[in-house]
Design a protein that fits this description.
The complex is a heterodimer of chains A (about 350) and B (about 325).
Chain A lengths: L2 E3 L7 H10 L3 E2 L7 H10 L6 H13 L6 E5 L10 H11 L5 E5 L6 H10 L7 H28 L8 H15 L3 H16 L10 E7 L1 H5 L7 H7 L2 E5 L3 H9 L4 H10 L11 H13 L4 E7 L3 H17 L3 E6 L5 H22 L3
Parallel strand pairs in A: 1-2, 1-3, 3-4, 5-6, 5-7, 7-8
Chain B lengths: L3 E4 L5 H14 L3 E4 L5 H10 L6 H13 L5 E3 L2 E4 L8 H4 L1 H8 L6 E2 L2 E3 L6 H12 L4 H23 L4 H10 L10 E6 L2 H4 L8 H7 L2 E5 L5 H6 L11 H16 L4 E7 L3 H17 L4 E6 L5 H22 L1
Parallel strand pairs in B: 1-2, 1-3, 3-5, 4-6, 7-8, 7-9, 9-10
The chains are: A alpha/beta (about 350), B alpha/beta (about 325).
Chain lengths: ~350, ~325
């Protein structure tokens, strides 16, 4: 059985692990990115490479000594750097003496044959396409369940009456979804997980601010890379809505664009009519949409030196001014400290609260 | 009165200024370049642009700032793709938007989108749009376009003869070819045109090398055909035109020419260069025949620091050569 691993993106590893094992691979689980991961990544990655390159490289360097033969990851068609990560990682890992191969999934609508070829490489059991389809469907459903549960925590956390109750419950219910295997089980686990989360004691009358989060996909999805900003905001009494989830991103990048994707594009048109790769245009479009939906603020997360987000950040002050919505940007890298971020977040929340109070008729 | 069209002297200026200037002049417009980079421009740019942007972008903001009050139009094309395969850095793609939304008062931009993947006459269409903004007739635009393309061909053939863009622009203007000096060493200077040829931001790199008796070959001096055929040992072609050229040029130099040293000039925080630089380093490392140095510059680059490093590098190469002989 080939030993495979993949990047760590929040809780999604639970679904990918199931899929890979179903196809007959031995999975070496990527650990949650830690200080050690970053140290490894920073040591071997180019200095100005963006943050995700370093985290992913660190993750690979943690799993490779365990005998990984194949790394599964996603590609991209540019001009964002993310499309070249796999090639860069492969060269660096080879130069360090790890004989790994990388399977890169490019958008299947552009490279359908490559896609099938890649699937066959991950299919040592020689299952039929129909069986593979069933496996993917279950994994997909699990991914959706994970996303749905996470979405609910964003709503519950700012209203919880016991500090940390949501996070504790969330950790517990994740295990339920993790254990579910068949479609029926996954659905049932999802339902009971959602119910369990709703049972967390809440104060429905609390004055909760609503903040949209936009930015680059990896730092948005992986809490270890953004210093758990969503949890920190929830504890400050802010309901978070994230513009991207793994299921949404996958749909936009594999098959047809979703209607949500198209609306975002339209909203960004007056400011940035060009697709820059990455999520530069989405950041702008989503900010406009959040403003129209009456959100109290927007937070942009981006890795240091991220090209599309720098373009977006240059334009965002104008969007913020014209749509009257405060925007806070964090450029994240290995130097970002939790305390600095918390201070800025607290100040931002204060600002939004005062703004909201001023708007409300006396 | 003729319309005044401002062209910031940074980024693609070094490759396409003769083309653009001819085009607008033929349409009866007056072209106003922002001139050589100065300390003031850099300071203005640093103030206007985002702190996290790279130096070339900050510098471009400075050049725009210097032009704003003096022109009727600003020519800031959105150059997406010129070779049907690779695009430019995302910052080039969003350049007109960044400029438009960063300055409060700004003359109208001529921000035509140039993407040759759209069809076989996409380039002429883009120029037509630019001409129509100035109110020219279609016939005049066609003539101006043809003339501009002829100038572009002459300009690039001059570059391929071994002249640097600024010298080539002078030759185009005056028709006199300066004497070429033979140097004791030949260096390849790799890097993007807006860094290598900008005397201020590169801290006079080319001039310093010349003074030390070093001949310089740059990416623009190579034939595009030769570069296109280079195998750069990647599974996937690099997305960015300029980065792709730099990497291919490095492989070309390593394989086909005898150079004494290689200098890679890069800007602090340059996105594409973080990958291109690493690939380049690995390629040079594999061969182990050519001395290699990377110079990273930003808005604080000091003259003394760069000069010391350059001298040390040249000395090292000289000594190596003597030992080998």
């Amino acid at each position: 059985m080939p030993r495979v691993t993949f990047p760590h993106v929040a809780e999604s590893y639970r679904s990918f692990k199931m899929l890979m094992e179903d196809l007959g691979n031995e999975v070496i689980l990527p650990p949650r990115p830690s200080k050690h991961t970053l140290d490894l990544g920073v040591r071997y990655a180019p200095e100005f490479a963006c943050f995700p390159v370093k985290i992913l490289l660190g993750t690979y360097l943690e799993t490779c000594p365990k005998g990984v033969e194949l790394i599964v990851t996603s590609g991209g068609v540019g001009p964002c750097r993310a499309g070249h990560y796999a090639q860069l990682h492969k060269k660096i890992l080879h130069s360090l003496g790890y004989p790994v191969d990388i399977v890169v999934f490019e958008p299947p609508r552009l490279y359908p044959l490559d896609f099938l070829h890649n699937i066959q490489r991950l299919n040592p059991r020689r299952m039929s396409y129909r069986a593979i389809y069933e496996c993917i469907r279950r994994a997909w459903r699990k991914l959706q369940a994970l996303d749905n549960v996470e979405k609910l925590t964003h709503k519950v956390r700012p209203r919880e009456t016991i500090r940390g109750a949501t996070t504790r419950t969330y950790r517990r219910v994740l295990e339920w979804i993790d254990r579910a295997y068949s479609l029926v089980e996954i659905e049932e686990a999802e339902r009971s997980a959602l119910e369990e989360l709703q049972k967390v004691p809440q104060d429905p009358n609390r004055d909760v601010l609503r903040v949209g989060i936009v930015g680059e996909v990896y730092v948005l999805l992986e809490p270890a890379s953004n210093l758990e900003i969503e949890e920190a905001l929830g504890n400050l009494g802010v309901e978070v809505e994230r513009s991207l989830f793994l299921t949404g991103w996958t749909r936009d990048n594999t098959w047809a664009e979703t209607t949500e994707g198209l609306t975002v594009k339209e909203a960004a048109m007056p400011y940035l009519p060009e697709l820059l790769g990455g999520h530069g245009r989405d950041s702008i479009g989503n900010t406009v949409l959040y403003a129209k939906r009456g959100f109290d603020g927007v937070i942009q997360l981006a890795p240091f030196t991220c090209i599309p987000e720098i373009v977006a950040r240059t334009i965002l002050p104008r969007v913020s001014e014209e749509h009257n919505i405060p925007v806070l940007t964090f450029f994240l890298d290995e130097q970002t400290g939790k305390a600095g971020m918390t201070t800025r977040l607290e100040a931002f929340v204060d600002l939004m609260r005062r703004k909201k109070a001023a708007r409300r008729p006396a | 009165m003729a319309a005044r069209v401002g062209i910031p002297c940074s980024l693609l200026y070094f490759l396409y200024y003769p083309t653009w200037k001819t085009f607008f002049n033929e349409l009866g417009a007056e072209v106003i370049p922002s001139g050589n980079t100065t300390r003031e421009m850099l300071d203005l740019g640093v103030k206007e642009a985002l702190a996290d942007a790279c130096v070339p972008i900050k510098l471009y903001f400075g050049h725009v700032q210097a032009l704003i009050s003096r022109v009727d139009y600003l020519f800031i094309p959105r150059v997406v793709c010129l070779n049907k395969e690779t695009t430019y850095c995302p910052k080039f793609l969003g350049l007109p938007d960044m400029i438009r939304h960063s300055f409060k008062k700004i003359p109208p931009l001529i921000d035509v989108r140039i993407d040759v993947r759209e069809g076989c006459n996409a380039l002429s269409k883009a120029y037509r749009q630019a001409g129509l903004v100035l109110g020219a007739t279609r016939g005049a635009i066609v003539l101006a376009y043809r003339k501009a393309m002829a100038v572009e061909r002459r300009f690039f053939s001059l570059l391929q003869e071994g002249w640097q863009p600024l010298e080539a622009m002078q030759i185009l203007n005056t028709g006199i070819r300066p004497q070429k000096q033979k140097g004791r060493l030949v260096f390849a200077v790799l890097g993007y045109p807006y860094l290598v040829y900008d005397q201020y931001i590169s801290v006079g790199l080319l001039g310093r090398l010349k003074k030390m008796g070093v001949e310089v070959i740059t990416v623009e001096n190579l034939l595009p055909r030769a570069l296109y055929r280079q195998n750069d040992h990647l599974d996937k072609r690099l997305f960015w035109t300029l980065g792709d050229l730099v990497l291919r040029a490095a492989h070309y130099f390593l394989r086909h020419t005898r150079i004494d040293g290689m200098i890679h000039l890069t800007a602090f925080g340059c996105g594409p260069d973080s990958l291109v630089g690493k690939f380049l380093e690995m390629a040079v490392h594999e061969q182990q025949t050519v001395p290699f140095m990377r110079l990273s510059i930003d808005e604080h680059s000091g003259e003394a620091g760069i000069a010391t490093r350059l001298e040390a590098f040249v000395d090292m190469v000289c000594r190596k050569k003597e030992v080998c002989l």
